Amino acid sequence: MIRLDKVGKSFKDGITDRWVFQDLSFTINEGDTVAVSGPSGCGKTTLMNMLAGLLSVDSGSIEIEFEDRPPFQLKHLNRSELLEYRRSDIGYVYQFFNLVPTLTLKENVLLPIELTGRKHLSDQAISRIESLGLESRINAFPEEMSGGEQQRAAIARALAHGPKILYADEPTGNLDAKNSSVVVDMLWQEVSSAETTLVIATHSESIQDRAEKVILL
Description:
Blueprint: E1 2-13, E2 16-28, E3 33-37, H1 44-51, E4 59-64, E5 72-73, H2 79-89, E6 90-93, H3 105-116, H4 122-131, H5 147-159, E7 165-169, H6 177-194, E8 197-201, H7 205-210, E9 213-216
């Protein structure tokens, strides 16, 4: 479960604090598919980075609860605890793919498994590469892949280590309509199969229609 209670975030604009949002409260249950939507500049990426522990709240709290441990607030985690949360509990799909350019597709996908030591998930990760239609590109480097292939690889990487939550920040923002549709279908299929909670920031009305819950900023 993800629970936001009166969350606010601001940035310095000269000598003035500019609030991106204030008093933001909502709850996401385990296994939900949730779309975060709103106009450009409303704070979607900021919110995603806060949920991922990459940015801290300026007011309120973000509480995370998993079945196998007591609930915890992100702002109370120390540096090593935040690193463990980001490394082990969540996956993140970026709009600009963020694949490591010096690694092959296979090496990129297996990287989270290397970092978490969950070697027993390697075979499943390779099978996911095949299920995403990337078996012929498994030894290709990112620069040799199309945008759609890179985004599918990014999804495979984000799910490789079996995260409890998958955050996706405008994952189709740099794709054409055909590739966007393919990527979204595969993303929904993969999170459903893995029973992973999905939080996706998007402008797309079709993605909003597929989500069980829509949060408007």
